[in-house]
Specification:
The protein is an alpha/beta fold and 220 residues long. The chain has helices at residues 8-31, 55-67, 101-112, 145-154, 175-179, 185-208, 210-217; strands at 34-40, 72-74, 77-84, 87-94, 119-125, 133-136, 161-165.
């Protein structure tokens, strides 16, 4: 008899049963795909389509096209879902307009139960040459209203982002017009090519982690 009054064979069976039950739970959890929220920032409406400020939309559109995924009009944004190997990707284009992007990000993080480190925000960057990409684990908003609102709504700046260069070839005082303007035909060719590089960087982020993605794609 064991100390708790149960016969040893019964106690042994209970221990073995408990072990395999825990083992099955661990294996089931391991089989679940990791989920990622990929957010492309931009403004909705025909007047903003193709503008430099909407490069986040453009990159996420390229990812959806490569995966054969379709966007649906949902709460706070347009959402598409796809899978890359063992990673489940939720693609989001907020319909809140740029300055309120955080509302959409927070809602879809909660809705899809995505951890903060698995959120990747794709955003335009004036400090980078056209088409240059740079992934970061965190950082300040650097004056970007979309990033400011996301940080405000999430109460942190510690979320990954993929910055896509749009250049800064504008005269003093003309930043707003430049950002809300469209790429030249020459720059458009570069953007189309580099959007596909950004798509590969996003996949690398989801499959191999942010450090791998930064090492292999930053500056390209």
């Amino acid at each position: 008899m064991a100390g708790d009054g149960k016969p040893l064979p019964v106690l042994l069976f209970m221990n073995i049963f408990s072990f395999f039950k825990r083992k099955n739970r661990i294996e089931e959890a391991a089989d679940l795909p990791m989920k990622y929220l990929i957010v492309g920032l931009g403004n909705i409406g025909d007047e903003y389509d193709g503008t430099r400020h909407n490069i986040g939309f453009r990159v996420v559109d390229a990812l959806a096209k490569a995966q054969g995924a379709d966007f649906q009009d949902k709460r706070y944004g347009f959402v598409a879902k796809t899978r890359v190997k063992n990673a489940e990707l939720v693609l989001l284009k907020p319909s809140t307009y740029m300055n309120l992007s955080g509302n959409a990000v927070r809602y879809w993080m909660q809705q899809e139960k995505v951890e903060l480190q698995n959120v990747l925000v794709v955003v335009d960057d004036l400090s980078l040459p056209v088409g240059t990409i740079r992934m970061k684990q965190n950082g300040s908003a650097a004056g970007h209203n979309g990033l400011k609102n996301i940080a405000q709504m999430l109460s942190t700046e510690n979320y990954p982002r993929l910055k896509f260069g749009i250049g800064n070839d504008f005269p003093r005082g003309a930043q707003v017009d430049f950002v809300l303007g469209k790429f030249s035909p020459e720059d458009n060719k570069v953007v189309d090519e580099k959007a596909l590089v950004a798509v590969d960087a996003i996949k690398a982020f989801c499959l191999s982690g942010i450090q791998f993605a930064m090492n292999h794609y930053n500056g390209k």
